[in-house]
Amino acid sequence: MLAQEKKRVTNTRIMFVLGAATVLVFSALQSEINFLTLFQKSGNMVEYIQSYFPPDFSDWKIYLEDTIITISMGLWGTILAAIFAVPFSILASENMSPIWIVQPIRRILDAMRAINEVVFALIFVVAVGLGPFAGVLALFVHTAGTLGKLFSEAVESIEPGPVEGIRATGASKIQEIIFGVIPQVMPLWTSFVLYRFESNVRSASVLGIVGAGGIGVSLYQSFGSFLYQKVCAILIILILATSIIDLLSAKLRNWLV
């Protein structure tokens, strides 16, 4: 019996490996992956990149102002998403809510994160007009779906002991969440929020392409005018801003967690 069980497990693993390999090959064909073409035409890419240098910082004040707007969009999009994600993550956690609530909430979160921020930005530009507010709303909706999923997974991974202890005292459901759940997940939640803030700043930098404000407007105009040296200057400013945010986020994470 033991030999048969080992053989069955081995066969299952072989089938899994073959299935995974088939999916990878199929995906490569669908994606038209061809590294030979990339190597053969790398000279064109080098020539194109050379046109970006030297960077033109003549409009650096405008770029800096637009970058601050972009960071502000990322900040508020993340804050609103985190506020929204907390209650929805509780409702989406199987160990905290009944299945008839969990599944609909999860599908809502799936829909929110399945649609790209640019699509949401197009929708909100129609609703509230051109400008950063549309970008904030787009980031908020997409990020809320992502954080809701991550938060709920953290909630489902908690130790049940503290929650059961609080429940034994006759505490309400909200008290169980506040005193039994949130203290356990707060370090992970904090890391998720800080990471999404960094990601949202990067995402906000392209929302201006569809009229949602920020540095993306200047980036789109420079690309459209073939002013690649200005594009290079904008990209350098974005890289510096993202690096600074990363350093500050790391310090804040160490302080909070």
UniProtKB/TrEMBL annotation:
The chain crosses the membrane at residues 68-93, 114-141, 204-221, 227-248. GO terms for molecular function: ABC-type phosphonate transporter activity. Residues 67-249 form the ABC transmembrane type-1 domain. GO terms for cellular component: plasma membrane. Keywords: Cell membrane, Membrane, Transmembrane, Transmembrane helix, Transport. Its main location: membrane. PROSITE patterns: ABC_TM1. It is found in: Cell membrane. It is a multi-pass membrane protein. It comes from the Bacteria. NCBIfam families: PhnE. Belongs to the binding-protein-dependent transport system permease family. This is Phosphonate ABC transporter, permease protein PhnE. The lineage of its organism: Bacteria, Bacillati, Cyanobacteriota, Cyanophyceae, Oscillatoriophycideae.
